[in-house]
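Researcher: Here's a chain I'd like modeled. Treat it as a single chain, no partners, no ligands.
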Amino acid sequence: MPGMRKGATVTLEGAGDERPGCLTGDAVFVISEKRHKRFKRLGDDLVLRARVPLVSALTGWQLSFRLLGGDRFRYAFQDEVICPGHVKGRGMPVAGGDREAHGDLMVKFDVVFPENLTDEQRKGLAEILRGCE
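Model: Modeled as a single isolated chain. Structure tokens:
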């Protein structure tokens, strides 16, 4: 069942071993979770870490990736500065909820700063960014 959490059990009554003259047993499964290379689960929410170069974080960027179900998801940052944030409604299905109920997809941005700058670049950045809040 979509959205079940680690440790939850699923019981299939009468689907266990069968022996002549005995009642059929139940089959009981305990849910476990595998690690995913891109997403981390927090309850019904999913967390995705995205690396973004500093220049893109300040001037605009597009994030594109595949969701767990295979759908491609795109989020464009135009005319805005990227800060840690999240996109609602695309996390894990909520177990026992209606079919459309999902947790959040939280995108945590790791802004990649340049390792070094020239004196000219430092001066230019200071001039451009002076007065920004």
